[in-house]
Design brief:
Shape: globular
Structural class: alpha/beta
Bound molecules: zinc ion
Length: about 475
C-alpha cells in the first residue's frame, strides 16, 4: 500500500536537500539522484524549443558532490561532477517574464555598444554585455527569452553584423563558473527545419535572427564547462549536454503515444507520454535517454512484469539523458540525424503500464538499479515505427543528408575574458568539434559520437568574418 504522506515528505526532503546544492548530499541515495536527475526535463510551452534541465549523468561521482565546479584542467572525473539539483522547477514562469533587456526596435543601437572579439585561434568568439544584461540572462529561465526571443535577437544581430551567413548552429555560453541553480543545463532553440520524416514540421524563422536562411538553431549552455572536451595539458572537462542539444535538432520529435515516461512533478510518478523530446523508458539508449538494448532483461526476479535495462557502466539509465557527453548517439538518433540507413536501426522496445502495479516509492528504489515494471512491452522495427508514428520516410535520407555543419561558439560575458578563460573555452571547442578522436575514451566529441559520420566545424572564424 502506498504511503502518500511518507512519499510527499520524502520528496520534499530530497528536493530541499538538492536545492541547497552546496550541502552534502549524503542524505540522498545515488539511485534517487539517478531518478530525479533524469525525470526532470521540462516540456516547454513555447515551440519550437527544447529545454533540458536534466542532461547530466545520474551516475554522478559521489565523492565530489559538494564541489560542482571543475577548477582543474587535470580533473579526470569521467562523469560530470555537478550534482546541483536538476529537478528544480523554475521559479519564474516563462509566461510572466517581463522582457527588460532590449526590444528588437533598439537592437541597432545596442549592437554598436557590445564589442565582439574572436580569439587568436579563431575558434571562439565573445561578446561583452552590460552586467545588468548578463544578470538578466542568469536570473530568468532560459535567458528570459520571451515568445519572440528578443534577447537572442540582440545577440544574433551582433553576430551577423560581423560574420557571413555560414553558421548552421550558434552555441551561446554564459560565462558562469557554475551553472545558475535556476537554469537548465542546456536549451535548443529551433530556428529552422528542412528535414522531412523526423516528426518535425518544415519551417524557417532564420530571417528574424539576421540569418539569410542558413541558421538551424541556437543552443544555450549556461556555464563555462558545458561544452566538454580535452584540455591542452591532458585533463578533460566531462561536459555536456552538447551532444544532447545537438541531437535535439533532429530528435525526438515523434508524435505522442509511442514513448512513455514518468512524471516526476507528481509524487505518484504517473506515466505520461515522452513528448518532451526524449526516449523515456525504452531501449533506444542514447543521448536522449533510454537503456542499451544489449542490457535488456525480462522476467526479473521471476516477475513477468519486471524488466531491467542500463547503459554503459551505469547501474541504470536516464529517461531524458545518459550522462552528458559520456555516451554516443544511438542508432535511432543517428537515423534521425541522417547519418545511417534504416537497415542499421535495430528494433526498438517500448513500454507502457509502467506504474500500474507498484507504488512510486517502489519504482524509485528499483529504478536506480535499472529495474522497472510495465504491463505492456511493444517492439517496433524502424519501418513499424515510421508507420505507427506517421512521420514518413526521412528526406533527405542518409545518402543525401547534410553531414558537416558549421557552428559559432559565442561566450557572453559581463567583463572581457581573461587569458585563462579564453583557454578554457578554446580547449573545449578544439576538442569537442575536432574532426577526429579526442584522445579520451570516456567522453565523446561530436565526430566520435556519430561514429565518424558527422562533423561540426567551429574553427576558421577569421575566414567568414565580414
Ligand atoms: Zn533534452
Amino acid at each position: 500500500m502506498e504511503d502518500i504522506t511518507t512519499d510527499n515528505a520524502y520528496f520534499r526532503l530530497v528536493r530541499m536537500t538538492m536545492r541547497l546544492c552546496m550541502y552534502p548530499l549524503v542524505f540522498v541515495s545515488v539511485f534517487l539522484s539517478f531518478l530525479l536527475f533524469n525525470l526532470s526535463c521540462k516540456k516547454e510551452n513555447i515551440e519550437p524549443k527544447i529545454v533540458d534541465s536534466a542532461t547530466v549523468s545520474p551516475t554522478t561521482n559521489t565523492t565530489n558532490t559538494t564541489n560542482p565546479t571543475i577548477t582543474s584542467t587535470t580533473n579526470t572525473n569521467t562523469t560530470n561532477t555537478n550534482t546541483i539539483n536538476p529537478t528544480i522547477t523554475p521559479t519564474i514562469n516563462p509566461s510572466t517574464v517581463t522582457q527588460t533587456v532590449v526590444t528588437t526596435t533598439t537592437n541597432v543601437s545596442i549592437v554598436t555598444k557590445y564589442p565582439l572579439s574572436v580569439n587568436s585561434t579563431n575558434r571562439v568568439a565573445s561578446i561583452v554585455v552590460p552586467s545588468s544584461t548578463f544578470a538578466y540572462w542568469n536570473a530568468n529561465y532560459y535567458g528570459g527569452f520571451t515568445g519572440n526571443w528578443d534577447s537572442v535577437k540582440v545577440i544574433s544581430n551582433i553576430v551577423y553584423q560581423r560574420f557571413k551567413d555560414e553558421f548552421d548552429f550558434i552555441f551561446i555560453i554564459t560565462n558562469n563558473q557554475t551553472k545558475p541553480s535556476s537554469q537548465p543545463y542546456g536549451v535548443n532553440f529551433a530556428i529552422q527545419n528542412k528535414v522531412q520524416g523526423i516528426g518535425k514540421s518544415i519551417f524557417n524563422n532564420a530571417a528574424s535572427y539576421g540569418s539569410s536562411g542558413k541558421l538551424l538553431s541556437f543552443m544555450w549552455l549556461p556555464w563555462k564547462y558545458g561544452i566538454g572536451g580535452v584540455t591542452s595539458n591532458g585533463g578533460f572537462y566531462p561536459g555536456g549536454p552538447t551532444l544532447h542539444e545537438l541531437c535535439h535538432n533532429w530528435a525526438n520529435h515523434l508524435p505522442v503515444g509511442i514513448f512513455k515516461t514518468i512524471d516526476d512533478t507528481n509524487p505518484n510518478l504517473p506515466e505520461k507520454n515522452a513528448n518532451d523530446g526524449h526516449w523515456g523508458i525504452s531501449d533506444v539508449g542514447g543521448q536522449l535517454g533510454g537503456f542499451a538494448s544489449s542490457s535488456f532483461q525480462s522476467n526479473v526476479d521471476g516477475d513477468p512484469l519486471k524488466y531491467h535495462g542500463h547503459i554503459g557502466s551505469s547501474l541504470g539509465f536516464g529517461l531524458n539523458a545518459n550522462g552528458g557527453n559520456s555516451v554516443p548517439y544511438a542508432p535511432l538518433e543517428l537515423y534521425m540525424m541522417g547519418l545511417i540507413s534504416k537497415a542499421d536501426v535495430p528494433p526498438i522496445r517500448t513500454f507502457s503500464g509502467i506504474n500500474a502495479n507498484v507504488s512510486a516509492s517502489t519504482i524509485i528504489s528499483a529504478f536506480g538499479n535499472g529495474n522497472f515494471w510495465a504491463t505492456t512491452m511493444r517492439t517496433y522495427s524502424i519501418d513499424e515505427l515510421i508507420q505507427a508514428s506517421g512521420i514518413g520516410q526521412r528526406v533527405p535520407d542518409f545518402t543525401a543528408s547534410q553531414k558537416e555543419y558549421r557552428t559559432l561558439v559565442l561566450v557572453i560575458t559581463p567583463s572581457v575574458l581573461t587569458t585563462d578563460e579564453w583557454t578554457v573555452y578554446d580547449d573545449q571547442v578544439s576538442s569537442f568539434f575536432k574532426k577526429g578522436d579526442d584522445g579520451v575514451s570516456s567522453i565523446y566529441n561530436f565526430w566520435e559520437a556519430t561514429g565518424g559520420r558527422g562533423w561540426v566545424k567551429a574553427d576558421d572564424l577569421n575566414l567568414i568574418m565580414k
